[in-house]
Design brief:
206 residues; alpha/beta; Endonuclease, Chain A; four-stranded mixed sheet; 7 helices
Length: 206
Amino acid sequence: MANAKPLILSFLFITLLNIGSGCAALPNVTEMIDEAPSAQKPRQIVTSQGVLSPQQSKAVMDRLKRSVNPTDVLERHTAVVESVTESPLTKGNKVTLLADGQAAYAAMFKAIRRAKSQINLESYIIEDDETGRKFAELLLQKQGEGVQVNVIYDSMGSINSPASFFQRLRAGGIQVVEFNPLNPLADRDEWGLTHRDHRKILIVDG
């Protein structure tokens, strides 16, 4: 992994980034926020039991609004997310803000150690440095314990890491995929940022 650097996590930005990280350009977030409707209709919300009724969804939103200072940011933000994803909101989520790389890596190591069945790691940069080797050792350990580990890394972002680093993971039973492998003979557009995997995701037992 890259050396720990300050991280500012924004749910809206990450949502839009994950949707737009293919070949298309990202939506203009400022315009979308300005154009988003306010509370003209209840947000559609789903739970593990199914879709909530409009009355139940409104009650959830009202409860959330009572927990913050008076503002229309919540309504406008959720309207943007619902519009971009074309999917209902999901009730029952919990978010923990990780303010910097040190906190993020500590949380990731903790989650990996607790894994029982599966670990899915996707990152633009996985480097053969102190942090990257710590991840590698821990992932190999969990694979040896019977936890299936799957890794996706970007060919451009991880260009400084030798093939032997990832081959060691494969030899240990980890499923490793190189996203959009660099080809010197291919059109240079294929090397562009919009053709790269900028996701930074860790899913454990999900």
